[in-house]
Amino acid sequence: MKYAILLLLCCITALTGYSQQDKYPLQITHLSGNLYTYISYGSYSGERYPANALYLVTDKGVVLFDTPWNEEYYQPLLDSIWARHHKKVIMCISTHFHDDRTGGLKYYASKGIKTYTTRKTDSLCIINHNNRARFLIPEDTTFHVGGYTFQTYYPGPGHTEDNIVIWLPKQKILYGGCLIKSVQDTNLGNLGDANVKEWGRSLRKLQQKFPNPTFVIVGHNDWSNKNSIQHTIDLVSAYNKAHR
């Protein structure tokens, strides 16, 4: 009898897990050329919340810009990339220390994937007991991988003290991560590790550094509107005015 009950509980657990993944599936969308966005989900303010990230398909393999938010997506992302492109993921760069960017670093390193963060991100991962990368890079680093060039850039503090962006110069695509809010957003979201006083200055530096991008990929919600950087500046200004 107890084995029948155990089997029933296992079935219920499996069905529950499947329904969650079915309700919040990993979403992959072609962006441009060999660039793809993907959406995973995590919990924020008691609700499931989407996180955007990016990957690049090269001759040498696939480069991830940030990991999925939750472990239920770590292996499915690798499987989906293999099914679509018949290539393995070879490296992953996380853009700041929060779980929606670093959550999968340990898992991906165990799969032989080279994982990278800046030294500042690594120090914050240590303090906050988050997963760490195996390789540390300067904040402004240029990579050449499989015929593609991309660079990391640190404009200054904002959403966090360590948030970097990634620029693909040939495609003129800016992966801004959580430093940049979607035009859908009406507030700055999680400010637990933010530096709101410097955030606007950092964004203006970013505008000067990479003017007129073809796409700006934000950390959460819709990224189709390129006015997201100015929208974030406006949100920051409004917040600072209200909290003088």
Element layout with pairings:
Elements (H helix, E strand, L loop, with lengths): L1 H22 L3 E6 L2 E10 L2 E11 L4 E4 L8 H12 L3 E5 L5 H4 L2 H6 L3 E5 H9 L7 E3 L4 E4 L2 E6 L11 E4 L4 E5 L18 H14 L5 E4 L9 H15 L2
Parallel strand pairs: 4-5, 5-6, 6-7, 11-12
Antiparallel strand pairs: 1-2, 2-3, 3-4, 8-9, 9-10, 10-11
Helix pairs in contact: 6-7
Identify the overall geometry: globular
Beta-strand share of residues = 25-35%
CATH superfamily: Ribonuclease Z/Hydroxyacylglutathione hydrolase-like
End-to-end CA span: 66 Å
Question: What's the level 1 CATH class?
Answer: Alpha Beta
What is the CATH T-level topology?
Answer: Metallo-beta-lactamase, Chain A
How many β-strand runs? 12
N to C succession of SSEs: HEEEEHEHHEHEEEEEHEH
Please give the count of helices: 7
> What is the count of structural domains?
1
Q: Going across the biggest sheet, name each strand in turn.
A: 1-2-3-4-5-6-7
At CATH level 2, the architecture is 4-Layer Sandwich
Helix content: 25-40%
The major sheet is characterized as:
7 strands, mixed
C-alpha Rg, in Å? 19 Å
What's the pLDDT, averaged over the residues?
92
Instruction: Tell me the structural class.
Output: alpha/beta
Low-confidence stretches: 1-19
